[in-house]
Amino acid sequence: MKKFYAFLPFLGLFLIACEDDTTPPETTGPDPVEYTSGSADFSNYVAVGNSLTAGFSDNALFEDGQKASFPNMLAANFALAGGGSFEIPFMADNLGGMTLGGTQIAGNRLILSFLGESPSPVPVEGQGTTDVAVKLPGTYNNMGVPGAKSYELLAPGYGSVTGVAMGTANPYFARFSSSESATVIGDAAAQGATFFTVWAGANDILLYATGGGTGVDRAGNVDPSTYNRNDITDPNVFAGSLDAILQAMTANGADGAIANLPNVTDIPYFTTVPHNPIPLDAATAAYLNSAEAYGAYNAGLAQLQQLSIITEEELEKRTISFAAGEGNAVVIIDEDLTDLTGYNPALINMRQATADDLMVLTSRTFIGTLDNPDIPTSINGVAVPLADKWVLTPEEQAIVETALTAYNQTIAGLATAYDLAFVDANALLAELNANGFQQADGSVVDATFATGGGFSLDGVHPAPRGYAIVANAFIEAINAKYSSNLPGVNPLDYTGLYID
């Protein structure tokens, strides 16, 4: 034992010597990134737009969705480079419903229910506590107003509570407008923004599309007071409105970013329900093809074709035929077919859908239901043709595409004229639909309804993870335009689907 203790001093010297020989020099990690705004000034950021700006998701506006809006994500990035606070006109709860005078005027947000045969979106239970008549005090940086069309952002009284009751004003804006006569842009510009984003105009086309083309293309009509809700805005009205919006937001020299509009055919609302979802047994298929059902219709068409009243091509397009098994196409009303009722009242404008037709998302719970509960054979989409509102036909899609092209040309031109960062949201959403975006963990965010992570359960508005992808597109454009070095956001930090 004494020999062991005597050895310790030498052992200590040995360890010290080894330490001197082998310990590497102290190292430090990489210097922290210093974020800069470049030539932009993010100190007072104001976002202008519609539901896509507000954070609308799952068919409603609610607190968590507002927190996950792309402008709020941008504001968090801006705060790294001199950005200030970002005030949001929060809804009163996470339900999303709204009331006015005790009457519910907007439904709750959707959640996925697993109680039926297959998972389906249903409104979350509960009574929303957001009362439109309760005016929020102060000013707000997120000026996104769900439902607003381009020209409505400039409309006096669009935030009037009295107007909401009369159906002439917007309930979302009524909650935080500065007065009964205020305009959205007036309230936005009054804040003296140093930086702004504008993503507006989607509703000028979208409402026509989601309504199955039941509205009217108002090209050539420059009087919005004559428009119905589902009509497409005249391109000149859109251009004038957007120019006025940008004039107001840049009046004090603010920089900003503007995004173009995505094609509606790239959203799950039009890509989820197939045109041919009908299964039939042999007996039912035979009955539908018989003279008691569509056989008589087909014979009447053939007779008119022989008289050269319709072409062979239209005869083929309109002939209805069912087969035993899966994959039968639904029967639809198509107003663009030749009107034959003057020759035979039974020859209405109907045909079977093709892969070129886009069934709206809400048709998934309507196809196969009974038109008349007392008539078991009155099956919607089979014995009873689907009305125009359930499908966007190729002719209607062409109308949408023409308007979209004109709108996006305007947006690109104004981005150049006002020297703004330009975000190609059209290309972004097309890529999300076609291929998705791979994330750091190897997962892919895409446009698959309910499971893709890119879109919410209404099939129109992004989910939080989708909004993060939009935010990154804005940040990329802003960095490129103003030489900032904002880091962007991680989409995986946000949910792809609210589960309760």
TrEMBL record:
<protein>
    <submittedName>
        <fullName>G-D-S-L family lipolytic protein</fullName>
    </submittedName>
</protein>
<dbReference type="InterPro" id="IPR036514">
    <property type="entry name" value="SGNH_hydro_sf"/>
</dbReference>
<feature type="signal peptide">
    <location>
        <begin position="1"/>
        <end position="19"/>
    </location>
</feature>
<keyword id="KW-0732">Signal</keyword>
<dbReference type="GO" id="GO:0016788">
    <property type="term" value="F:hydrolase activity, acting on ester bonds"/>
</dbReference>
